[in-house]
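Quick one, tokens below. Sequence please?
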């Protein structure tokens, strides 16, 4: 069930959401978007497909507002609606996909962008970080934004000669993309090859990649993204000095 707590006209907005994938890069990227754009929360999604959680506000430690497994944020100025997913999916995703598809159609959302990641070992050759970013676009979206992607020198996926779409470690990104494309919803997957570990810089790179396209962050902000307050708890406390 999708529950909006604010009545906002989302027609022609861009919907951005993460796939729960290797290194949680998509989710970290959404954290960066919400915190740097100061997006207000406008709703939640309740579904048995994801582990239910509740916790303190991830972006404002002085706020009494709680976060849940799947929260919805929106920016009127940027014309974006952003979904953050904070827990693992444990059940069948068909119902979640169907509800998301209905939401996109009913709200007349212009396009959907899925932020994800893929196992770094898939790319056997050594590459600089800026070449580890890829995009997948539906036919409808490609017809509108294909020239821009080419101008940006973006690398499409899958590579030429490979017809089957695979995103190893990408979570449900491929499945959701296939579902939305089949429903004629303009959509894309943006992802970065990475390994598990400290993936904050991977998230920064993915947000900057996204911003090359939809331009929702000013250049000065995009190059100097602030980390959400909740990130200071990512790795816990430093090791005790008694160990040394």
């Amino acid at each position: 069930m999708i529950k909006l707590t604010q009545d906002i006209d989302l027609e022609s907005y861009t919907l951005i959401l993460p796939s729960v994938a290797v290194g949680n890069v998509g989710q970290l990227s959404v954290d960066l978007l919400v915190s740097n754009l100061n997006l207000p929360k406008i709703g939640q999604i309740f579904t048995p497909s994801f582990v239910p959680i509740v916790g303190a506000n991830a972006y404002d430690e002085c706020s009494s507002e709680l976060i849940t497994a799947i929260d919805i944020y929106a920016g009127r100025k940027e014309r974006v609606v952003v979904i953050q997913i904070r827990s693992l999916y444990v059940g069948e995703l068909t119902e979640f996909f169907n509800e998301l598809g209905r939401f996109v159609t009913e709200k007349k959302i212009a396009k959907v962008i899925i932020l994800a990641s893929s196992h770094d070992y898939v790319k056997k050759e050594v590459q600089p970080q800026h070449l580890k970013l890829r995009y997948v676009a539906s036919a409808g979206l490609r017809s509108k934004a294909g020239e821009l992607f080419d101008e940006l020198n973006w690398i499409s996926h899958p590579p030429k000669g490979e017809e089957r779409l695979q995103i190893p470690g990408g979570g449900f990104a491929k499945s959701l993309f296939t579902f939305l494309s089949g429903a004629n919803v303009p959509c894309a997957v943006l992802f970065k090859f990475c390994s598990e570990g400290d993936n904050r810089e991977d998230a920064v790179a993915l947000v900057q990649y996204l911003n090359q396209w939809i331009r929702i962050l000013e250049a000065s902000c995009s190059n100097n993204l602030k980390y959400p307050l909740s990130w200071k708890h990512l790795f816990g406390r430093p090791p005790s000095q008694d160990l040394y």
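The longest strand covers residues 111-119. The beta strands are 2-4, 14-18, 41-45, 54-56, 66-68, 70-75, 80-85, 111-119, 133-137, 187-194.
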